Amino acid sequence: MSTFQIDFGGGNSPQKILGIDLGTTNSLAAIMDLTGPRLMTGIIPSVVAVSEEGDVIAGEEALQMLVTHPERTVYSVKRLMGRGPADIQDELKLFPFRLTGLGDAPSDSMIHLQLGDKVMTPPEVSAHILRKLKWDAENVLGERLTQAVITVPAYFNDAQRQATKDAGRIAGLDVLRLVNEPTAAALAYGLDKRKEGVIAVYDLGGGTFDVSILRLHEGIFEVLATNGDTHLGGDDIDNLLMAVALEDIQSEWGENISSHSDAVQLLRRAVIQAKEKLSFVPAAVIDLNYNDKHYQREITLDVFNRLIQPIVERTLARCRACLADSKMSVAEINEVVMVGGSTRIPLVRAEVEKLFRSRPHTELNPDEVVALGAAVQAGILSGDVKDQLLLDVTPLSLGIETMGGLVSKLIHRNSTIPASAVDQFTTAVDGQRNVLIHVVQGERELVKDCRSLARFDLKELPPMPAGLARIEVRFLIDANGILNVTARDARTGQEQSLEVKPSYGLSDEQVEAMILESFDHAEADMNERQVREARVEADNNLAAVEKARRNEAFVALSPEERQAIEVAIQGLLAVYHSEDHHLIREKIDVLNEVTRNLAENMMNTAVRGALKGTKL
Amino acid sequence: MNYYEALGLQTKLTLDADDLKKRYYERSRQWHPDKFSRANADEQQKALDTTALLNDAYRTLRDPVARAEYVLEERKIHPAKTPPPELLEEVFELNMALEELREGDQSVRPQLENTKHKFAHMLDEIDHGIAVMSSLYDRSHDESLLHAIRSVLDRRRYVSNLMRDVNKELNVDLSN
């Protein structure tokens, strides 16, 4: 029916915001419903592959290709987000990332991955996972989704957050907010229970570890402190088991299979199966069949626990530091919430229980709770969730480089965000025209031990004697945990031009180019989507006309008008199953045209009805 | 707008912690960027700036020491650049002991532990002193009290730096 229907249809609610858990191993999405957060997709593996035809595939199909075409497939790409080639050397020893363009690139340039004949940056790879989630969710919901909340590890630094936001943009999503994973879990956990008190969230996922301590009070979720390690998780446990198995195989078969990437992926799968079993039974077997050879090794829970004890201990050390920062004692923690697949491991549960002296909550599915929390935050942003408010913190201190390579801290870790700091800069030499500010993130005293975020160049200063210029620079960490910098001349109050050189990451132009590129390659998908959308619109229009049949305005139509409407309906139904969205749209337009008079009359009736009820 | 204005408060050195938290929560509910995700760019920027100010204000004002530092800074009563003279002898002895420990003389360890406890005690006394002087100032608005607080704060900063040095050396040695 024509567009007038919105005037009395009543169902024209604003677009839903998708809540996305973009995990190291798995990803999923949810939305906020009238009844609460609801999953919109299955749990899809965070794996991306390029087929021999050059199509990019994400999710379960890509996971299958990990064994058949390991050279065209990438997993755990989250470990590479916002990082440079120089700081992933350790990862390269353990993960089969195929980097390209490393040779003569400067150490702080972007990472590029080779997948078959395609080259992609980590944000682009992540974008394919996000796009898969977006499409799956759109199919379930039957609506377009263009806005999202994406979760990130609480301990992600500025560059890692920016890379996640870029991934969203490349996937065609407007990322309204990045939410820290443990905080999202707390939102999902505390939403309907109206909890009060102090809770700790222990989040051990596939690749990252976070711990957060929050105070819940009258719907305000105030994060007191957070700590973590962005490279500590189930992946590391897999790697320990892999090392054991590879050594065994070397001695049993007299062969080092670590150079055969298909064998390595088969073994990885076998190791993960054994690990997962050990959460329920006291012993499991690592079982590998490769090239007619058979390897079996029983791992008892005892051996497993001894193997992973150092990893668990690393998480506990982070928990103690977090407790100290929160200024809370163990006795003041009312509850502990467990998040992430690795919290199914009995040793992890036992050690966390021992540390916090309270039994950890495991009643929410640790794989789903973060996505559900992201949906709650989406609901807060859309206004559907009214009484809840999240006050999160920045995990790392922000500072600038001063004389002698020292860091001067401007915003301390665990400050509630948005947070800001202002510093004044001047010139050291007569006639100096620019000042360079190097911004770093981290807790150490020396610049070289911290993470370089960006260099800001204050340009076009008016020439004057040394020390006379007074440039006020404002550092602001926004609600996403991302840094924004502005500068003004303190004497004139004028905005000072500022050039940003991010140490790691994509420029705006690069991101824009990637968006276009992803559309070029997705033409077939595009058509499919447009057909689907056209059919949804046809459904809505047909339903509206059916509903209108009961209206007095319909009865008042002339026989010719009614005849025209029936013809238009048949015309639309005839093309409904075609693959040409233009054709479907054309017939929708015809139907709209012949029902225009009807819609106008119905609206007039509705307006009259409404006026009748009003006292004038 | 300064930190006190942001939270609708008079400039006072003593504040009620519960009242402060209540004001902060109320204003956060009103101004947090989450409430403006569908507003226009200007309104979003205003929400961001206002919330950043609220957060900065609450973080500073809830801590009596940071609060006093802030008030003095606003009054342009700046910290002294030289160490408090009454501590000079103390510092001299401390540095000697630290030097000996670095050279491997474990016998100074009890002396350093002792110093550490003394410093902790001094910090407690200083904080108590700041609290007393703060409430006196709020009643009398006597300028000279602000300068007295300034010198106590200088002393405090100096002592806590020394304490950090002692802790660092004692811990370094433990890990060897």
Largest sheet data of chain A: 6 strands, mixed
Shape of chain B: elongated
- Output the CATH topology of the largest domain in chain A: Nucleotidyltransferase, domain 5
Oligomer: heterodimer
> Most extensive interface, residues per chain?
A-B, 24 and 17 residues
Low-confidence stretches of chain B: none
Percentage of residues assigned to helices of chain A = 25-40%
Determine the number of helices of chain A (DSSP H or I, runs of at least 4 residues): 16
CATH homologous superfamily title of the largest domain in chain A: ATPase, nucleotide binding domain
Q: Overall 3D geometry of chain A?
A: globular
Kindly state the mean pLDDT of chain A as a whole number?
87
Helical percent range of chain B? over 70%
Q: What number of domains of chain B? A: 2
Class per helix and strand makeup of chain A:
alpha+beta
Distance between the termini of chain B: 51 Å
The average pLDDT value of chain B, as a whole number, equals 89
- Could you tell me the radius of gyration of chain B in angstroms? 21 Å
Strand content of chain A: 15-25%
Tally of DSSP β-strands of chain A: 26
Cα radius of gyration of chain A in angstroms: 28 Å
Please state the second-level CATH architecture of the largest domain in chain A: 2-Layer Sandwich
Give a verbal description of the structure.
The complex is a heterodimer of chains A (616) and B (176). Chain A has 616 residues and is of the alpha+beta class. Chain A folds into three domains: 17-232 and 309-391, Nucleotidyltransferase, domain 5 (2-Layer Sandwich); 398-512, Substrate Binding Domain Of DNAk, Chain A, domain 1; 522-612, Substrate Binding Domain Of Dnak, Chain:A, Domain 2. Helix content of chain A is 39%, strand content 24%. Chain A has 16 helices and 26 strands. In chain A, strands 1, 2, 3, 4, 10 and 11 form a six-stranded mixed sheet that branches. Chain A has a five-stranded mixed sheet with strand order 17-12-13-14-18, sandwiched between helices. In chain A, β15 (283-290) and β16 (293-300) form a beta hairpin. In chain A, α6 crosses α11 (369-382), α13 (523-548) packs parallel to α16 (581-612) and α15 crosses α16. The longest helix of chain A has 32 residues, at 581-612. Chain A is globular. Residues 2-12 and 103-107 of chain A have low confidence and may be disordered. Chain B is mainly alpha-helical and 176 residues long. Chain B has two domains: 3-62, DnaJ domain (Helix Hairpins); 85-175. Chain B contains seven helices and no strands. Chain B has helices spanning 3-6, 17-31, 41-61, 64-74, 88-102, 109-140, 143-175. Chain B is elongated and about 65 Å long. The relative contact order of chain B is 0.12. The mean pLDDT of chain B is 89. Classes of the chains: A alpha+beta (616), B mainly alpha (176). Chains A and B meet through α11, β18 and β21 of A and α2 and α3 of B.
